[in-house]
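Researcher: We're teaching a course module on how sequence relates to structure. For the next exercise, students receive a sequence and then see the predicted structure as tokens, so they can try to spot secondary structure elements on their own. Here is the exercise chain.
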Amino acid sequence: MSLWTVQLLGQFQLKDPAGITQPFRTQKTAKLLAFLVFFHEKSHSREQLADMLWPESPPERARNSLRVSLYSLRQQLSLQKNEVLFCNSDTVQINSQYFTVDTWQIEALLSQAKNCTKAHQRLSYLEKIVQRDYGLFLQQYDDHWITSERYYWQTIYLDTLHQLVDEFLEIGQYTVAAAYAQMAIKADPYAEQAHVDLMRAHVAMGRPVAARQQYLELKRLFQKELNLPLSDFVYDIAKKLGLCNGILTFL
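Model: And here is the predicted structure for the students to work with:
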């Protein structure tokens, strides 16, 4: 079966079975497909979709705009009616068997990692998640449902990196652990857990000076950019790692 490829993480993209990126008739049509693909497990009322995509239009005009966008998608996907889209007078649902989607693949990898009892295989699943092109969820759009899901997928990415740091520290691969901590800091410079993970990796590698520098850098970042103190969580870890002695009195 020929599959359409959808990228939801980073710039939203639709690729045909030949791997060619396809443009959309309008931005609303693109958002409609993104929504249907992401929430593919259930049908959606036409009224809900029309209100979501055309909130400022009168109801009848919004429903007509939805009909036009659905027609455009059917034409673009080049399959017969109701093969890719299950539509009736009230509801719309995507036919997921014709698609492969990056978020679906990540969910499958997370499930495999969770149920895996072999450490090396679990690490392989987790690494596949963070080594892919993992941008912000639908980063070119800012609709309410998108921004809420964006936080969720960013959290998935950071949590996976944290788990990788923990597991590589456990097996003594400290350099690899440090690299994953640095990836997390790059993704979110204000993520305290990521900085703590890098401190832990430096200490494990016998680099207490580098660990202290990382601690001080995080403290200055919070003071300068956010005008906030570090959390008790960071202070407690720093104390356990021996990074505060002789330093805090000068800060």
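Model: If you want an answer key for the exercise: The CA atoms of residues 9 and 134 lie 6 Å apart. The longest helix spans residues 144-170.
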